[in-house]
Amino acid sequence: MGVPHLYSLEGRIGRREFALTVIGILFATYFATFLLIVIGGAGFASMTGVRGLGEAAAKLAGCLVAAHALWTLNAAAVKRCHDRGLSGWMLMFAMPPLIGQIWLCLSLITGPGDAEDNRFGEPPRSADLSRDPALA
């Protein structure tokens, strides 16, 4: 998966690529947040000496990291919905507190994608390894 594909809402991805994308983005966000806490001065601003422009820059960087993570995770979930033959708008079902997360886990993570072409494109290559000539 290339970088432009990571941000796109078009196409389909399989379960493995979805899981690896989610794990990678969550790990990178955790690491970036940790660095921002260390650089921005952990604790009270009056005790760390980080004030003014440095504090504002750390907050802005935190907002950018969060926005990047949310967009990338949403794009991966939309493409996973496409692999299942669903519209990306089906992610709105994940909004209710408990029922939405159960649906998200059961449908996107454990559910298989469409084996054939659907209205969102052809199946991801990782879905069927028997088509790969290198593995034949």
Verbal overview:
The protein has 136 residues and is an all-alpha fold. It has 5 helices and no strands. Helices cover 57% and strands 0% of the residues. It has helices spanning 3-7, 15-40, 45-48, 53-83, 99-109. The radius of gyration is 19 Å and the shape is elongated. The chain has one domain.
Give the tags.
136 residues; 57% helix; disordered C terminus
Mean pLDDT: 76
Sheet-strand content, in percent, reads: under 5%
User: If you compute it from the alpha carbons, what radius of gyration comes out, rounded to the nearest whole angstrom?
Assistant: 19 Å
Number of domains: 1
Helical content band: 55-70%
Low-confidence stretches: 132-136
SSE string, helices as H and strands as E: HHHHH
- What's the helix count? 5
Q: Overall 3D geometry?
A: elongated
Q: CA-to-CA gap between the ends? A: 22 Å
In total, how many beta strands? Answer: 0
What class, by secondary structure content?
Answer: mainly alpha
Largest sheet: none
